[in-house]
Specification:
CATH class of the largest domain in chain B: Alpha Beta
CATH superfamily of the largest domain in chain B: Metal-dependent hydrolases
CATH superfamily of chain A: Metal-dependent hydrolases
Radius of gyration of chain B: 22 Å
CATH topology of the largest domain in chain B: TIM Barrel
Number of domains of chain A: 1
Shape of chain B: globular
Number of domains of chain B: 2
Largest interface: A-B, 36 and 46 residues
CATH architecture of chain A: Alpha-Beta Barrel
Structural class of chain B: alpha/beta
Shape of chain A: globular
Distance between the termini of chain A: 46 Å
Oligomer: heterodimer
CATH architecture of the largest domain in chain B: Alpha-Beta Barrel
Strand content of chain A: 15-25%
Helix content of chain B: 25-40%
Number of strands of chain A: 18
Distance between the termini of chain B: 14 Å
Largest sheet of chain B: 9 strands, mixed
Radius of gyration of chain A: 22 Å
CATH class of chain A: Alpha Beta
Order of helices and strands of chain B: HEEEEEHEEHEEHHEHEHEHEHHHEEE
Largest sheet of chain A: 6 strands, mixed
Chain lengths: 471, 422
């Protein structure tokens, strides 16, 4: 299974408001390698306090159709958020709205969770280079441009969480990163983190033709699997040596970043996000998973419909792409829109993804519409845009549905989520509005036009008017 | 692909050409039969929509269109029913049939980059009517496509118009040479071992080369018309094609996305007095007044074409088609050219999105039916449901532009090609 419930929130998002004490304890933790420059960190914290205080305001979305995901809809419902979290969801006529709440009338509109994209390439990030086929040490977070206009387009499409991945041209192209689409200026502020403050993400792997090239890359599928197995065998030995050393620095092996990343995978601290198309490639991934015992999400899976039964038996989860036609590469020749329906019928957990730029993040809702066209149920299709994907990132306890205690990541739609006529009107992340279609600047990114792909201006949100003139 | 249906279609075609009725052993539909398509709503695109309407097709052609209550049709006619009936969709620009779904060298015949200028390349000689993407498009209601040589070379070759039926190109073709494909902008730049040595390497060089070719064709045309046949230049297939452009029989299909490349296309059109159809025109909305003044139609890029990445389409707008149409410019939509997955787009989907980004339902439907047919020069045959036109019909289970609506029937020349819900 891949569900993980152990993720804790950033100190800044705790219930206690200003996170100074929480962050201080984080700084004391020697395992936190990402905050070395303490004065800067303190400045950030001070800035952050202002943000958190602002988010302590209570907002209530009242009167619209509420799709909580995972349970029955409320034709006329209310969602109340406070401090960046959801504090109440229910029928409008029986869910109290606190007196100090800012009321947003959503009559005639639809409120649902922010969308979760399990497979995105937004931000121009890069993974491994041409030096070799297995580069699990490379982190995409070291290369993402958070000012890329793609992030604004994502918010315009109602996306609030992404798994940003390196490409599929390697057997292992690097570590992916899970980001929350706050409006911020550094990648560090976008990250989901674990209880120890480490950025959350998985490992991108691929098989099939994309990763086959001239040596040292594999030339065949057999060679591809052999190279991966060889590396995992090494990682197992490395892990054993670490265990035998039992913390004794004189006995432990020299640190090896590649093997460390693979040990994270073996210990299920990182999920493998595995690109694969053909049915036999899908089965190869499952075979390696069973040999080494890692958690895996199978991505794209053009031929999943051919092996839906085997997938169901395996217990693996699939993140499916929805395309306007088959082909474009040999492996996608038998792509079918029926994948979502076939996986649902077989009982395989199924999410959808954009693979942006392969499909446009602003049209992510559309992919669910096409999945329904090909036979998937409406409820499962909507779940596959939200909760199913959240679970595949190990974030199912925190996001993906409108439930009390979860992050206030939600979107307001003009109508049914599966209609071509529907527009994303507003997007909220942790209770803060990050997209508003009525804002002309936001509208540019939603609709396109001159300048809609340019890098964005900095948003020094936390420093206030002193730097406002630079915006 | 249903070979039986394709055979039936081919047979019908043969029957029509020979002006005789052939009775086949067991085809899906024979030419002698009457097909009636009945819809709760019929969008004829030749007048107001008809509630509970019928389209009667005899011998492959439409013989009557009107209200079911008042339009007579034989009681024993084969009947297809659906919620919404439209003309078979017309994709105003594609490369399907030349660019195969596998995307491997052996099925990619849409672009030869050996030379920058090759107007002599006929689409006819490369079209594969058995390509799987043809059935894919047809399943969503597309019955006619303007396809051929792709953008990517200064003059990449010819285009043609085909029906999505038939087992040979001869059976499928409506217009063997529709346009000559020209690309301006980055995609026309040639790269090689020594990039600087291959032309065009710059925008200005590309336009200079195009003008030089047109000047050469002018001279060729003048000399070929001389009374003294001994002074005629030898026949040159490329110049022959360009002479057709100068003579006004064939337009240039100029793919240009940046505003300054669009302006270059208009400048060349004016200089030589030639017909130009603009293709893609991502930044067309910046020059709507000039395009309108030039009287040039635009086959607008797929609404969902990829933007970003700093390329020439970075300023794409979902509202481009609506902006151009509002300026009074004739527009059509297209599936375009895709070099990776998905290997083709579907014009039904592109029109659907355009219909909620500024175009009305009727305008968006026109952009993939009658307006598209007009721009590619086949409006006398397809694009609307009117008496005398080809019996090409698409049937939908509801609003054709909704993501969750199925196409439930496709008819070409009166032959039912598909009744599978797609």
């Amino acid at each position: 299974m891949i569900w993980r419930a152990t993720v804790r929130r950033l100190p800044a998002a705790t219930d206690s408001g200003c996170p100074l004490s929480g962050l201080r304890s984080t700084l004391d933790n020697p395992r936190v390698a990402h905050i070395r420059f303490v004065p800067l960190a303190v400045a950030l914290v001070i800035a952050w306090c202002g943000v958190v205080r602002a988010d302590d305001a209570v907002t209530a979305f009242v009167g619209g159709r509420v799709i909580p995901v995972g349970r029955a809809e409320f034709p006329a419902g209310t969602v109340v958020i406070r401090g960046g979290r959801i504090v109440a969801v229910g029928p409008a006529d029986s869910t109290p709205v606190p007196g100090d709440a800012k009321r947003i009338d959503t009559t005639g509109l639809v409120v649902m969770p922010g969308l979760v994209d399990t497979h995105s390439h937004v931000g121009g990030g890069q993974g491994g280079d041409g030096s070799g086929p297995v580069q699990p040490d490379v982190r995409i977070l070291d290369s993402i441009n958070v000012r890329d206009a793609g992030f604004r387009k994502c918010r315009a499409g109602g996306l609030t969480t992404l798994n940003i991945m390196p490409g599929s041209g390697h057997l292992a192209s690097g570590q992916t990163v899970y980001v929350k689409l706050r409006r911020v200026d550094t990648i560090d502020e976008l990250l989901y983190r674990d209880a120890d403050g480490r950025p959350l993400g998985g490992l991108k792997m691929a098989n099939g033709t994309n990763s086959q090239k001239e040596p040292p890359f594999p030339g065949t599928r057999g060679k591809s699997a052999a190279l991966v197995r060889q590396k995992f065998v090494k990682a197992l030995a490395y892990r054993d040596k670490l265990a035998q050393a039992a913390g004794d620095p004189d006995k432990r092996p020299d640190r090896d970043l590649e093997l460390e990343a693979l040990v994270d995978v073996l210990e299920k601290r990182k999920i493998v996000h595995h690109h694969c198309h053909r049915a036999d490639d899908i089965m190869t991934v499952l075979r390696l998973r069973d040999e080494f015992g890692f958690d895996v999400v199978l991505h794209h899976v053009s031929e999943a419909w051919k092996v839906a039964g085997a997938l169901a038996e395996s217990g693996a989860a699939c993140s499916v792409i929805v395309l306007d036609s088959p082909g474009g590469k040999i492996e996608a020749a038998d792509f079918s829109l029926v994948n979502g329906a076939a996986l649902e019928a077989a009982g395989v957990p199924c999410a959808l993804h954009t693979d942006d730029p392969v499909t446009d993040s602003r049209l992510f809702l559309r992919t669910a519409g096409l999945a329904v066209r090909a036979g998937m149920s409406r409820d499962k299709a909507i779940e596959s845009l939200t909760l199913a994907g959240a679970r595949m990132l190990g974030l199912g306890e925190r996001i993906g549905s409108l439930d009390v205690g979860k992050d206030a990541d939600l979107i307001v739609l003009s109508g049914d989520p599966l209609s071509v006529k529907t527009r994303v009107l507003q997007t909220f992340v942790e209770g803060r509005k990050v997209f508003d279609r009525d804002d002309p600047e936001d509208r540019l990114f939603a609709v396109g036009g001159f300048g809609a792909s340019r890098d964005q201006k900095a948003e020094p949100c936390c420093i206030g008017p002193a730097l406002g003139g630079l915006k | 692909m249903s070979l039986d249906r394709s055979r039936a279609w081919s047979s019908l075609r043969a029957a029509r050409m020979a002006a005789v009725v052939i009775v086949l052993a067991a085809p899906a539909v024979t030419a002698a039969e009457v097909l009636v398509v009945r819809g709760d709503v019929v969008h004829t695109m030749a007048g107001p929509r008809i509630t509970d309407g019928v389209v009667v097709i005899e011998d492959g052609r439409i013989s009557a269109v009107g209200s079911a209550a008042t339009t007579p049709f034989p009681a024993d006619a084969k009947l297809l029913r659906g919620a919404v009936v439209t003309p078979g969709l017309v994709d105003a620009h594609s490369v399907v049939g030349l660019a195969g779904h596998l995307n491997q060298p052996q099925d990619q015949d849409q672009l030869d980059t050996a030379e920058a200028i090759q107007p002599q390349l006929r689409a006819l000689d490369a079209y594969n009517p058995q390509e799987r993407l043809i059935e894919w498009l047809r399943g969503f209601g597309v019955t006619t496509i303007h396809t051929g040589h792709a953008p990517g070379a200064l003059v990449s070759g010819q285009t043609m118009v085909v029906k999505l039926a038939g087992t040979t190109v001869e059976e499928a073709v409506l217009v063997p040479m529709a346009m000559v494909a020209v690309t301006l902008g980055d995609a026309a730049r040639r790269e090689g071992g020594d990039a600087d040595a291959k032309s065009p390497g710059t925008r200005s060089k590309a336009v200079a080369m195009l003008r030089a070719e047109l000047v050469k064709a002018q001279e060729y045309r003048r000399k070929r018309a001389l009374a003294d046949a001994s002074k005629h230049p030898d026949k040159d297939l490329g110049l022959e094609t360009m002479a057709g452009v100068l003579g006004g029989t064939v337009p240039l299909l100029v793919t240009a996305d940046r505003a300054h490349d669009i302006a270059s296309a208009l400048r060349v059109a004016e200089e030589f007095g030639i017909r130009v159809v603009l293709d893609s025109a991502a930044e067309g909305y910046l020059l709507a007044d000039r395009i309108k003044a030039a009287g040039v139609p635009v086959i607008v890029h797929p609404t969902m074409r990829r933007a970003g990445g700093g390329g020439e389409t970075e300023n794409l707008s979902f509202e481009n088609a609506a902006t151009l149409r509002a300026a009074g410019i004739p527009i059509a939509l297209q599936s375009g050219y895709e070099s990776y997955v998905p290997k083709t787009r579907v014009v039904l989907f592109e029109a659907g999105l355009a219909s909620v980004y500024g175009l009305t339902f009727e305008q968006a439907l026109a952009a993939v039916t009658i307006d598209a047919a007009t721009i590619i020069g086949v409006a006398d045959r397809v694009g609307s449901l009117a008496v005398g036109k080809d019996g090409d019909v698409a049937i939908y289970g509801g609003d054709p532009f909704e993501y969750t609506t199925h196409c439930t029937g496709v008819v070409i020349d009166g032959v039912v090609m598909s009744e599978e819900a797609r």
